[in-house]
Structures are given as C-alpha cells and as structure tokens.
Amino acid sequence: xxxxxxQFTHLSQHQPDKRTVAERRADFDEIYRSFDPSRASExxxxxxxxxxxxxxxxxxxxxxxxxxxxxxxxxxxxxAYEVSSATNNFPEICGRICPQDRLCEGxxxxxxxxESVTIGAVERFITDNAFxxxxxxxxxxTHEREQSVGIIGAGPxxxxxxxxxxxxxxxxxxxxxYDRVGGLMIYGIPGFKLEKTIVQRRHALLEQGGIQFxxxxxxxxxxxxxxxxxxxxxxxxxxxxxxxGVYKSRDIGGPGAGLxxxxxxxxYLTASNxxxxxxxxxxxxxxxxxxxxKNVVVxxxxxxxxxxxxxxxxxxAASVKCLYRRDRANMPGSLxxxxxxxxxxxxxxxxxxxxxxxxxxxxxxxxxxxxKLGLPDTSGRQxxxxxxxxxxxxxxxxxxxxxxxxxxxxxxxxxxDGLEVSRWGTLRVGRTSFMTSLPGVFAAGDIVRGASLVVWxxxxxxxxxxxxxxxxxxxxxxxxxxxxxxx
Length: 487
Ligand code: FAD
Ligand code: SF4
Ligand code: SF4
Fold this sequence. Notes:
Blueprint: H1 21-26, H2 37-44, H3 54-57, H4 65-73, H5 77-87, H6 91-97, H7 119-133, E1 148-152, H8 156-167, E2 171-176, H9 184-187, H10 196-208, E3 212-215, E4 218-220, E5 227-229, H11 230-236, E6 239-242, E7 248-249, E8 262-264, H12 265-276, H13 282-285, E9 295-299, H14 303-314, E10 319-323, H15 335-343, E11 347-349, E12 352-359, E13 363-376, E14 382-386, E15 392-395, E16 398-401, E17 405-406, E18 441-443, H16 446-449, H17 454-475
Parallel strand pairs: 1-2, 1-6, 2-3, 4-5, 6-18, 8-16, 9-10, 9-16, 10-11
Antiparallel strand pairs: 7-17, 12-13, 13-14, 13-15
Helix pairs in contact: 2-4, 2-7, 4-5, 4-7, 5-7, 6-7, 8-17, 12-14
The structure holds flavin-adenine dinucleotide (FAD) and iron/sulfur cluster (SF4) (2 copies).
Flavin-adenine dinucleotide (FAD) binds next to helix 8, strand 2, helix 9, strand 4 and helix 14.
C-alpha cells in the first residue's frame, strides 16, 4: 500500500469551506467552495483502502472509491478521473448533491472520532478539475448504428441512458417538455446546492457527442404543435425509454387550504430556478411565488422543504419557519442541510402540524397544533398524535407545501392501455430488463422507483441502457439472449 494512504490517524477531516452566511443569503450560488489540489490529495490520503470497501457497497453506482482516492492522493488526477467516470456519468453532480451521510460517507469504516473520508468533495474535485484540464470529452462515435432510441425525459435518468447508448453507437433522441435539459437538476434543485452552469456544461457535452435534443416537446396522447404522440415515437424509434420522473405534489387539506398564497413547493422552486437562469417569471413579478418581505411558513421535513426555506431566505423573506410534525431526529431531510438552513436564519418548529389556514383575500396565518411522538408501528416509525389544547398561530403571507411527490394518475399515460403500472402508480418494469409491458419500451428513474435520488436515476439509466442494447442487438439478430418483459 502506498505510504500516502491511511493518514486519518493524524490528518483530521475537512469538508470544503463554506462561504459566509452573509454572502450565502445574498445570492443563489453554491455555498461550498471547491477543494484545491493539495487539500483534495490530503483528504483522499485519509482513506485506509479497505479490502471490502463499505463506502462502495453503499454507493448506488458501486463507484470504485478506494481506487480514485488513492490516485488522487498520489496526484494522478487524470487516472482518478478515468476511474471515477467509468461508473458515473455525472460524478461532479453526485459529489455535490448526493446525501453522502446516508450513502458512501455514512458507511466509511474509519472509526468514530476520526470521521469519514470526504468522498463526495473529492469526487466533485476530480471531475471539476478534469473539465479545467480538458480531459472531459464528448462521446466519439466511430461506427454509428442504424437503430435509434427515443428517450422521454431529460433528467438524470434519461441523460445517463442517452450517454451510455450513444457510446454504443446508437442514434439517440431525447424529448422533454421543458425548454432546458436536466429535469429536476435544472428546475427543482436550487443553485446553492448545484449551480445551473454545472448542468448546462453537461448538456453542451452531450450535444457535442451527437445526442439530439427535442426540447419544449411534451409527449402526449396526440401529435400537435407542442406535443408529440407516444405512438409517433414508437413508430419513429427502434426502442423507447420513459424517464419522466414524478411531479404530483402531495396535498394538504383542512379549513382555508384553498386560500391564495398557499403554493406547491415544485411551483415555487421552478419559478425561482427560472428566475436564477435569467427568465422573466410572471408569478415572481406579481409576487405570487416571491417570498420577498413576507412571513413564510414551509410545511414538511424533507430535502424539498429545506430547499424551499433556503430559497425564501435568499429571496429576502421577513421570516422563514419550517413546520414539521416530527422532531429533528426523525426528519427525512439531510441533517447537513438543516444545519445550513439554521445558519442562514431559518427557524424550525418541530413537532407541529397545521390545522387550518386563516385569511380573507389571501392567507395571513397558519393555525397549528403541537404533536407528540407515540409508539413505533410495524415499520418501526413512531406514530405522531396531536396534543389536545396546544393550538398556536404563526403569521404567514406565503405558505409552501413541501410534503413530497407521487407519480401522476397512471395508467392513462398517453392513452396506452397496455402500459402497466404498479399499485403505487409507478411504471411496472422487469426487475433486470427495465422493459415495461410494451415490447421495446423501457422505463427508468423516479417514474419507476417513486421520488428518489439523482444517483439512483443515473444508476437506473445506465442499467436500462445496457438492457436496451441487449434487446436491440437481439432484434437485429446479432445474438440471442433471453429478455424478460415486466414480470
Ligand atoms: P426528473 O429529474 O424528474 O426528469 C424527468 C424529465 O422528464 C423532466 O425534465 C420532465 O420535464 C420530463 N417529462 C415529464 N413528463 C414529460 C412528458 N410527458 N413529455 C416530455 N417530457 C416529460 N436528489 C438528490 O440526489 N440530491 C438532492 O439534493 C435532491 N434534491 C432535490 C430537491 C428537489 C426540490 C426535488 C424535487 C428533488 C430532489 N432530488 C434530489 C431528487 C432528484 O432530483 C430526482 O430523484 C431525480 O431528478 C430523478 O431523475 P429522473 O430522471 O427520474 O426524473
Ligand atoms: Fe458517494 Fe454519491 Fe459519489 Fe456514490 S455517487 S460515491 S454515493 S457521492
Ligand atoms: Fe476508504 Fe472509508 Fe471506503 Fe474504507 S470505507 S475504502 S476508509 S473511504
């Protein structure tokens, strides 16, 4: 083993520096600064090069983490990039936004007290540096195949599949209803976690590699000026991949729930992201989706709620409160993001839930009640019950509902009765084939898993691409392999 490794006993963990709170509150730029080469090398050298690396086991992409850490520690950065990009289409994105505390870093075996290796930050550094050095190149196709694949959805799942299929020589066409590429990476996740230029840089590279994008084209039941029918795409392409994500916001009822000023998280974040990208957004100009000067209450405890509270801070809200019915220890959102939000001035109201919304023309307050945790249910999760007589009122001119997402009402998707759905409303696919109940139609990402993570969408997109390749080769009579449709 290289002497450079195993340095965790005397080198302490350093996450990348954060910008000051005052700077962060004033713009939508990323809050973490990059490692410089010496800090990246130093932090990578803390790895003990485990024989069975639990970090890799718990990375959805099974990234070869110990190898690229060792290469980084030795300053062999081009090789580190080659190894890192062999299993991940967008390592610099995962390095920024994976919940590492629950995945790779949370399973690093370095003993408690020494703290885990800063895997995500090194991964981000390797590819950011590779872009600077000119080592990241578009796909080069030497022999283009005659078959074409249509991909519906330009989120991480669709993009990872597109790149993998292009590498194999297929003609790849990506259709998206949005005018920009990236899915939730561009219009959901705010710039303070993932700057828009990082996603746009990938879009440019994919286009240079010959992937053709058809933006502003919603796939629908019928062809029209703005839509393209699913049936048309089936005729046009030899195989299709559906990677359309999940966008139906979970709702909240109760008295006053229909008042103006109570908005969905996805609408609020999309408007803010569009504004950051320089678009004119009428709902921000009219104040409907702008927190400036307002008392804001965000309902929910997941990462989307964290993105909303921190966006409201940056829009200049008078106050920002996050109402969550469980406590800090039981919230689904990343604790790192909660700490960042608290630093930026967000107040968390734990163990509290809304009962009613008050207001005349628009919402002016949330009537809430205290909650208490009860006994665990069969899944191990503690129940939550209201505390009688504990009602209280929070002033609110803007209420943002961030309670999670579900798939749309399927199975009426694009008038295709044959497209089977699971009992959760997600698309049903073969476990390893990713093929739906329609031959030659595959699906991947959130539309199959339900609301998940970028890294899982990438993983699914890669696996689906491999399966599409096998199926198309079989169709072309190149070799025969059994392929299971949705079982
Ligand atoms: P999406 O990213 O949703 O992309 C689907 C694409 O399909 C979209 O571009 C959409 O316009 C397009 N589409 C949909 N219907 C049609 C149609 N009919 N015709 C044409 N195009 C269509 N994950 C993390 O790992 N880290 C995070 O920090 C994180 N933060 C998040 C914050 C927010 C606010 C949200 C909402 C999600 C976050 N996630 C995060 C989750 C992550 O963004 C998703 O799991 C991931 O983007 C799913 O990828 P996907 O490719 O399946 O779908
Ligand atoms: Fe960790 Fe995500 Fe990178 Fe895997 S892809 S090593 S989980 S940051
Ligand atoms: Fe290195 Fe930690 Fe992974 Fe072990 S678990 S190989 S110490 S990063």
